[in-house]
Amino acid sequence: MDEGQQRVRDACAQVCPGRGLYVWGPVGRGKTMLLDEHFDTLREPKVRMHFHDFFVRLHAEFIRADLRIDRALDAVVGRAEAVLFDEFFVHDIGDAMLVHRGMQALKTKRVTVMATSNYAPDNLLPSNLFHAKFVPTIELLKSMMQIVDIGAGLDYRTKSDHKSGFAAGRWTTTGRIQAPAGKRTTLFPAGHPVVALFAGNGSVWFDFADLCEKATATSDYIALARTFPRWFVTGIPPLANVSQDSAIRFANVVDVLCDRDIETVFISDGPPDLRGLDRVPQFESARLASRLGQLLMD
């Protein structure tokens, strides 16, 4: 355990009702592992969620509850007295307004909030146009949680043993593996139609164009991940050559599959090509590179 990780572990010991912990820093530093370790020791009712999953559900329940944030929050976290959010982020001002209301409601309920993030609170919603409007939410987060920077260091994801789950997957070249013969099928995981090259026996095959170039949402990927424990994604082009929306959708696919530890085979004409993507708004190329770095490369 390095100095930054020990700093996080020490801060975990200070978590108490109504005063949580926000740990931020580079990808692969063990933020989630350390907070999970502490969260598992809590005896009170608790909920752990990827922040994007939480936000998708909160938004849906907010509409269903006639814009009553208290009812929406009850539907999502129930009677939880502690909540752990993994991968906390805010990129959109429209989302930011609901995030503020959700966090304020959690504070009012005296729910202990813990979170991991790649961003310092002051760097959330980095838009020059809208950041100032988000400052009150940043101050709210600081009032609810101790803020700890885990610091730079070894990316532990690169040390995978490739034995199970997402890390047992691979990035391979076109022609090495073919989709099973059969008819293309249209799935409706969360309302949007998503065409699969093959689906059955616990596996699903997608072409990049069907999965990432159509109007699919992260909620679709989450629902598909619940259904299929093994994925294949073929026809992946250099991401610098696709639209920004398609690149972001692909990153969301990788996030969902990695977070749920689903074995995945990615098929392309060459190795992962992320050049130029650090200039794309809302695209976290470092996180994507770290996650793809867990895979075996053919």
From TrEMBL:
Please list the GO terms describing molecular function: ATP binding; ATP hydrolysis activity
Q: Which InterPro entries match?
A: ATPase_AFG1-like, P-loop_NTPase
An annotated GO cellular component of this protein is: cytoplasm
Q: Does the keyword Coiled coil apply?
A: no
Question: Gene3D superfamilies annotated for this entry?
Answer: P-loop containing nucleotide triphosphate hydrolases
The alphabetized list of GO BP terms reads: cell division
Q: Does the keyword Cell cycle apply?
A: yes
Which UniProt keywords are given for this protein, alphabetically ordered? ATP-binding, Cell cycle, Cell division, Nucleotide-binding
Top-level taxon in the UniProt lineage: Bacteria
Recorded hits in NCBIfam families, A to Z, give:
ZapE
- Can you name this protein? Cell division protein ZapE
